Amino acid sequence: MKQQTAGIHHITAFVKNAQENVDFYAGLLGLRLVKKTINFDAPEVYHLYFGNEVGSPGTAITFFPWATSRKGRIGGGQVGYTTFMVPVGALGFWEERLNKFNVSYNRVERFGETYLQFADQDGLQLELVEREGGQMSKWSFGGVPADKAIKGFGGAILYSVHPEKTMEVLQDLMGLERVGEEGGLVRFRAVGDIGNIIDVNAKPMLRGAGGAGTVHHIAWRAKDDRDHRQWQEHVREYGLQPTDIVDRQYFNAVYFREYGEILFEIATDPPGFEKDETFEELGEKLMLPEWYEPHRAQIEAGLVPITVRVLEGDK
Predict the structure, then answer these.
(1) Any residues with CB less than 8 A from the CB of 88 and at least 6 apart, and which?
(2) What domain count does the chain have?
(3) Name one GO molecular function term (predicted).
(4) Is the peptide bond before 271 cis (omega within 30 degrees of 0)?
């Protein structure tokens, strides 16, 4: 049977300032900071996860805030836009909210849908779209009530240096269905109901440069560990070079770079972010894997304290 991913598991990006990152994604966008940990490969850097009330697969955008990071350049080999999905009827609320906090945006039409496109404090390109699919978020914070809250990912726009090759990977390897073409974009749909709509810029793009304001990788969903091992073998048989399985504590991960030079990850849905914190405690304490616990004092001393706070405009 052909393997198919349900859609996006998470998206990970680079930013500069950790507190500004928290203020934008938790304070302005109303997402929940569900996990405060470190980059396991660079423990002097936070790894912050934002999502719905529990950071369910398909809702979590994650960040490496690095104060000395260079400014990145969005281009080929990257996610161009990260798409968030909001409830039908909520787009007007979000227009008012972006205006209230002086975030400039553009309204664009694509495949019969209206999108609000804007950028975060580092220039990371984001967009909001209304859709029926996916479960409603149960999280409300600041000025964002649960009935208007971001449900999770709608999908993404991919920028490729070899778009035809990237589209073949999406269709033949990842199991997405090609469903349309419009305005220089080709649309694909995964089988899930969230994080499932992927648009690919059909023209080759100049290679981007990693740094603040760019996406590091896009991760796709695997059902469980068994499915994950099958994905690893599936990628290898396709002719790409998957890494070994890496324990990321809250999911297992395999990475590979597809032919259009976008870094893909395949991540398991379980165990999730409640593995080491209760629902009520999510995101409050710096969580470290056991091999870093002996160095907690040193690690914490090197990290700038951050606070999830209600923005002044919402008080």
Answers:
(1) 130, 131, 132
(2) 1
(3) dioxygenase activity
(4) yes
